[in-house]
Design a protein that fits this description.
Transmembrane (T) component of an energy-coupling factor (ECF) ABC-transporter complex. Unlike classic ABC transporters this ECF transporter provides the energy necessary to transport a number of different substrates. Its main location: membrane. Keywords: Cell membrane, Membrane, Transmembrane, Transmembrane helix, Transport. This protein is mainly alpha-helical and 274 residues long. It has a domain of 162 residues. 67% of the residues lie in helices and 3% in strands. It contains eleven helices and two strands; from the N terminus they run H-H-H-H-H-E-E-H-H-H-H-H-H. The chain has a two-stranded antiparallel ribbon with strand order 1-2.
């Protein structure tokens, strides 16, 4: 289960998506997430899913690898579906028992939220899978650069976000190793009630926190040994430049947003459904 988490990982490949400018991918991903909250029709979700499928195919990232990341959040998806299924009120009752009621509106809302979560996770993972940590850092820093005028440390924020994403797979791998080591010593993480299962996680969390602090100290010492001083007088070996493919991706994204907004207007309600 732990190895199934794909957020923060980078999948090396030669594809048009990998070659896009990191700034474009960050902005496009943000607009894609926004579009998921604008879409409210079946046709809209079909268009979003089809577009995401085309982008995944162009990225040359295996679909199985993308879907594998959903295994780690299947509980959240099911919980969201159940909440929306029973808590959404409507006029067309499909099933009722005591205080539990399932309506057509609730069923539609549950399906819509599940699809939205799946598209959100897959689309967000695609950005990190096709962008190296260095490119991601430079892209975030460039987009936050205007905030420097009001005293926002753009470089430090970008570095912290990238380091956090970079070490997610490392910490997950460390957790997996610790769990296997504890199970080899007779630890049981599957039996017992919720309190017992929570207590059984202590032998995992303690060495994991120790390992995380040790890695943080080693990283700080390595950065200091390389005379890292933040954004002060910092130069880059690879300067980010917008190319023709980046402008084409921006135009395609603008057209996509116009289609999504047009479908929402045609549906008669231009509100963000959260």
């Amino acid at each position: 289960m732990i190895r199934d988490i794909t957020i923060g990982q980078y999948y090396p490949a030669e594809s048009p998506i990998h070659r896009l400018d990191a700034r474009v991918k960050i902005v496009v991903t943000f607009l894609y997430i926004v579009s998921l909250f604008i879409v409210n029709t079946i046709m809209g979700y079909v268009i979003v899913t089809a577009l995401l499928g085309v982008v995944i195919h162009a990225s040359k990232v295996p679909v199985k690898f993308m879907l594998r990341g959903l295994k780690s959040i299947i509980i959240i998806i099911l919980f969201t579906a159940v909440i929306n299924l029973f808590m959404t009120r409507g006029d067309h009752i499909l099933w009722s028992w005591k205080f539990l009621t399932i309506t057509t509106e609730g069923l539609y809302m549950a399906i819509k939220m599940c699809v939205r979560l799946v598209l959100l996770i897959v689309g967000s993972s695609l950005m990190t899978l096709t962008t190296t940590p260095i490119q991601l850092t430079d892209g975030i820093e460039y987009l936050l650069r205007p905030l420097k005028k009001i005293g926002v440390p753009a470089h430090e924020i970008a570095m912290m976000m990238t380091i956090a994403l970079r070490f997610i797979p490392t910490l997950l791998d460390e957790t997996d190793k610790i769990m296997k080591a504890q199970q080899a010593r007779g630890a049981d993480f599957d039996t017992g009630n919720m309190i017992q299962k929570a207590k059984s996680l202590i032998p995992i969390l303690v060495p994991l926190f120790i390992s995380a602090f040790r890695r943080a100290e080693e990283l700080a010492m390595a950065m200091e040994a390389r005379c890292y001083h933040g954004d002060e007088n910092r130069t880059r070996m690879n300067v980010m430049r917008m190319r023709g493919r980046d402008y084409r991706a921006a135009v395609m994204t603008a057209v996509y947003l116009c289609v999504v907004v047009g479908l929402r207007i045609a549906a008669g309600h231009l509100t963000f459904m959260i």
